[in-house]
Specification:
heterodimer, A: 371 residues, mainly alpha, two-stranded antiparallel sheet, two-stranded antiparallel ribbon, 4 strands, globular, disordered C terminus, B: 310 residues, ABC transporter involved in vitamin B12 uptake, BtuC, 12 helices
Amino acid sequence: MRIVFEKRQSISRQALILVPVISFLVSLLLGAILLLISGANPLTTYAAMARGTFGSVYSLSETLVKAIPLMLTGLGVSIAFRMQFWNIGAEGQLVLGGVAAAWAALFLNGVIPDALLLPVAILVGMLAGAFWAGVPAGLKAYLGVDETLTSLMLNYVAILLASHLYYGPWRDPQGYGFPGTAQFPAAAWLPRLWGRAHWGLIFAVIAAALLWFILNRTRWGFELKIIGENKTAAHYLGINIARNVLLALLLSGALSGLAGACEVTGISRRLQQGLSIGYGYTAIIVAWMAQLNSFAVLFVAVLMGALLVGGDQVQMMMRLPASMGLVLQGMILFPMLAGSLFTEYRLRLIRREPATETPPATPVPGAEVQS
Amino acid sequence: MISELFTAQVLLGILTSGIRLATPYLYAGIGETFGQRSGVLNLGVEGQMLVGAFAAFYVARKTGNLWLGVLAALLVGALMGLAMAFISITLRAKQGISGIGFFLFGLGLSDLLFQTLLGSVQTVSGFRPLAIPLLSKIPVLGEVFFNQNLLVYGAYLLVPIAAFVMDKTTFGLKVRAVGENPEAADSLGVNVSLVRYITVTLGGMLSGLAGASLSIALLNVFQQNLTSGLGFIAVALVYFGGWRPWGVLAGALLFSMVNALQLWVQVLGLPIPSEFAVMMPYVLTIVALVVAVQRVRPPTALTKPFIREG
């Protein structure tokens, strides 16, 4: 008997939904083992995490605070991934978006009418994010430079640039040495819905709907899909691949930039340390778990936001390091990746027929199962 | 002000620390070279280094034996390499994505263990410089090259060994064949999966060792995100080095010299903001990738999982 992987004709719908759900459960199980090793009771820990994330209106708003940037960056990343462009620079695009929005909020105050301050800050943030994604996209599209590493390196550059600004020239002189700019004028504050949950949620929902529409109902979206699925076919259909990759990545970066702009105008209301806490990396997990589906991104982002808040919760209540949340996130990806094997392939056991095949003279161990 | 940077003493300092700082790049870059030549992109180097760095630091501190620390780093590196191999070879996952998963996992796990087991930043007395008799007495060069610690020597020794294995042995031939044309290699009876398992696990071990070289030989400290992108730069070095050990050496030296330069810029208090100095290696990496892409072609089967028909 031997095991054979057969490529499925079409992706299994059942597996598409089951795989993320099972992955989440498996990661909780693996996390439980880790918790046991660290000497904590997994059940009480998970209960504390659940209470701290969805238990009250306030805790739900805190979960959304973390989920909003994950939604926006997750959407951005998913457009790029759809084109098989491995943009792992969402973190830097978010940070640069925050920096640019902060610049507008601080330095255009009084220069342009108050009513325009917030829209301009957000727009400038989106442009900055787009620009930051445009660099690896341009290098890839026109020079063939691998985008994974270039987009990644730009994360470090953006984070260092931001820290230079809030430690140096933009630091609040009245800040008692606190690393951060002065608070933005009220005209640049992004309104909040309740708790600290802000309008970014509305932006994210609109962005998801818009993205779904572009990808499924427009000619451009159709072109993007073809490029993602078969570059050769796209080429013969006369689709301009380089231009489309660049445009899609500008959109991808703009969404991450928007996330950064919302963070500084909606949450901290200043540019300060802690703008980048790895949202851009978690976004990769979000996009992957959501199978690049715009609306699924919103839900998965809430789940991942809950893991982050839950990590903070266990730190406060059970004195466990907050990095527990990060470990759980990393672990969620593995069963997920393993599972995608089953959405694309079918596992088949083939019984060997003795009549048609002469058995080898000496059995070769391990030769039966080829993977 | 800039002229201060170019006194003989400072240049010597830059050279000496440059030679030292190439160590983690070399271990991780050579390991990654084997993986990529066999067709597997392991982006999890950063995570493997972090866990290796912590394991080495913790074991060395608890037992007082640096070699046990090295062993621990090799062991956890091998385990993480094996896991990466399983996910990318057997399960055929997207290699770029699974690498990021390993990065986050390693970042989280090393910090989790650090917080629970140590709680605060501590130091360890790491590997001491070991002067090589006679050679270390050569004026100037002796101090720069032959008065380093054992893990530094090991990294430089690894380069010719790796080049030999890659170019002159049957195993090296198999690695290259599997990375260039797995179907042909398979039809000649080479076990594609096995070769890739070996290279990726070896890569994990060397990444773990790279981490150990930071935490118990160069910096002698462990803290959250100790590597800060060094593992990713090591992956970029493989591209830059044209997938050859000697090329990786050239790249590692270039980067470590830039690193040493930026450290000295800060030490001397030159009027360049420290963030911009720290930025240099990352920007240089992008430049290096642009240069590399014009020169060399990556292994044909890189990132492509092998599926045997039938």
